[in-house]
UniProtKB/TrEMBL annotation:
Main location group: Golgi
UniProt organism field: Actinophytocola oryzae
Pfam families for the chain: GPP34
Gene Ontology MF annotations: phosphatidylinositol-4-phosphate binding
Protein known as: Golgi phosphoprotein 3 GPP34
Length: 209
């Protein structure tokens, strides 16, 4: 089963070429937001305003989620959502990719290009890689109910600009429906989306100056 950050990883890449659709920093921040969103969905943390509070220190089953929670527990004095987004963004890409490889959703191979050998990764099934995006697009198009992880995914997609891709072939009502379902998220999950959007906005602005 794909977790929230895994779904976001696949949406952030072309499902066939696996080329990134966004700037590296934006993808990393989106993945960091997704990893923190997983903690809310696992009921390990609450987010109020910009502050994170651990409400259940018991380790999640997933190894990466366990590691994320360990970091939060090790620094109880650091409660700023933005600080944690920046921290997890440093290696979120590599960590989520490792989880996808470990779970058999992605494989790594070496490829020779211009006298160099480079490492590339590919999905084990392109249909699985494309499923998070097609699932979101079809349900938003139909105005269908979304499970909480998919609502958070939709929010992070919008926060990072991936909605350009997800909504490309959807009817006009899909975008306002996306905004409506995201605004209905519980406070902690809505803050994860909002704080991620703010961090992405700051990163884009800083890159232009």
């Amino acid at each position: 089963m794909l977790l929230l950050a895994d779904d976001f990883f696949f949406v952030a890449h072309d499902s066939i070429s696996m080329k990134r659709r966004l700037a590296d920093r934006v993808v990393r921040l989106g993945l960091a937001g997704a990893l923190l969103g997983e903690q809310v969905l696992f009921r390990r943390i609450n987010v109020r305003g910009e502050r994170i509070r651990v409400v259940d220190p018991s380790p999640p089953r997933d190894a990466l989620a366990h590691t994320v929670l360990d970091h939060l527990l090790a620094e109880p004095g650091v409660t700023s959502m933005r600080d944690w987004l920046r921290f997890f963004a440093q290696d979120a890409y590599e960590k989520v990719l490792q989880r996808l490889i470990r779970e058999g959703h992605v494989y790594v191979r070496e490829e020779r290009r211009f006298l160099r050998v480079i490492t590339v990764f590919e999905p084990t099934m392109t249909t699985r890689a494309g499923w998070p995006e097609s699932r979101l697009a079809s349900r938003l198009s139909a105005g269908a109910a979304l499970e909480p992880p998919d609502v958070v995914l939709a929010g992070l997609v919008a926060a990072t600009g991936l909605d350009t891709y997800v909504l490309a072939d959807t009817p006009p009502h899909a975008r306002p429906y996306l905004q409506r379902v995201v605004s209905s998220l519980p406070p902690s999950l809505r803050e994860v989306v909002n704080q991620t959007a703010t961090a992405v906005g700051d990163a884009v602005l800083n890159a232009r100056t």
